[in-house]
Request: fold
Amino acid sequence: MGGAMKEGIVEYLVCPRSGKPLDLKIAKRDRKEIIEGLLVSTDGTEYLIHNGIPRFVSSEEYTDTFGFQWNRHARIYFDNKDEYRIYSTRDQLRQKLGLFQEKVTAKTVLDIGCGTGANGAAISEWGAKEVFCVDLSSAVEAAYANTRHLGNVHVIQANLFNLPFKRETFDVIYSIGVLHHTCGTGKAFLSLVPFLSRSGVIAIWVYADSPDLPQRLSDKIRSVTTRMNPRILYGLCWLAVPAYYVYKIPILGKALFHFLPPISKEPYWEDRVLDTFDWYSPQYQWKHTYPEVHEWFKEANLSDIHLLDAPVAMWGKKLTTAAHNVGVAVGDNHSHESTKTEIVSLSR
Reply:
């Protein structure tokens, strides 16, 4: 066993309400790892440690559909399934976040909205010092099961608007396809910046706003699907599996799908089901433009801002001094305009 809570991570944690230190009370342990117990603030507030996971929330709130899907398909990004995909988990980290091995080696990293823990596992294997995987939903159960063998990965159930960490703790903070599923994407982003260390990097990928016909159709359909029983909606999303073969029909398939609401066209069948489900099931789903997201980075006083190829993806560094100017770096041949609505994986 490697992924249960370790005593050493208490030094990173504080009470999310008061910001005060936490005392550890252990009820059950396995050598150096805590399986059951409590984290107790100096003001008396208690947080449960259950099944190796510190729990700083009492419910999933608006994220229950994510817990449903990621626990049902907990191994979707493991067991060598990347061989069926166009882009692997590591490819996604590079393209949507600008992250690669040299950027995370020996760094303390925060994964916001960890899903199954696949991104955190990849970051761990790239040589990160510590990786904290946070999710509000019960997906933490899947993430814990998938990363428990990795000694530098720590899974925590918490709300990103009320994180249980000391300020300026993390060298790298990233969120891939998660912030737009909160009550406010910009507010969610800005709430993360205080936890970034000096000269630290924060990288996000959010849905692009492309008000074309597919997006308008999907928004109307979502007004119904977000109120459906998730299990019924999940069953309907299996229609994306055979629909893929209609889409592959030359000329006719693509012309037909242009006038239909978005469904996943990923080559791997399991992705088609889950990506379609997590498009139509979440309570919140905001879309954004590059100028809008860039304003958040400027508001956060980040520097060395980079726009990435995958709309809308951006990363920036925390200022080391107040004298830095905000700059924008855009790679060659980037195209960020009139992006199509596509179904893509939210978190891994």
Notes: Residues 56-348 form a domain with the Rossmann fold fold (CATH 3.40.50.150). The CA atoms of residues 39 and 264 lie 42 Å apart. The two ends are 22 Å apart (CA to CA).
